[in-house]
Design goal:
Elements (H helix, E strand, L loop, with lengths): L8 H10 L4 H16 L4 H6 L9 H6 L2 H12 L5 H13 L7 H14 L6 H8 L9
């Protein structure tokens, strides 16, 4: 949409119809956007907030591999891993006296931490993490 300069809703609808969307889908999307815009306290707005950037301390960098840190950051930035659960994982990794935690160890800790913190169903997220299918989390 960034490459187009739409001046009204009709142009957007025509472009979406041309892209293969059904009129019903387009109307539902506009209704949803209108509801979000007119109701700033809507619960979905909480999910749309950008996660905060977390900086790893030198001690954490020594205990977590680059891949493991990247994995945790990716999950948090996608909104999959709550920051309190991430902190728990990092703490457990730092307390491990075995040396640096690699990606597979952090994945295992992540799955266990998500199981322990189930407030709502994380089964799909856990399966995607175990199977290395992060791209399927939103499909």
């Amino acid at each position: 949409m960034d490459e187009h300069n739409f001046s009204n809703e009709r142009q957007i609808v025509e472009e979406l119809l041309g892209a293969g969307f059904k009129e019903e889908e387009i109307n539902e999307a506009f209704t949803w956007m209108e509801g979000i815009t007119l109701n700033p306290s809507h619960p979905l707005l909480k999910q749309l907030k950008k996660p905060q950037l977390r900086v790893f301390t030198p001690q954490e960098q020594k205990k977590l591999s680059i891949e493991a840190r990247g994995f945790l950051t990716d999950l948090r930035m996608r909104g999959i891993l709550p920051s309190d659960v991430e902190e728990e994982i990092i703490l457990k990794a730092c307390l491990d006296e075995e040396g640096k935690s690699n990606l597979e160890e952090i994945k295992s800790l992540t799955v266990l931490a998500l199981f322990a913190s189930i407030q709502h169903d994380h089964t799909r997220e856990i399966n995607c993490i175990i199977e290395d299918k992060l791209d399927k989390l939103y499909h």
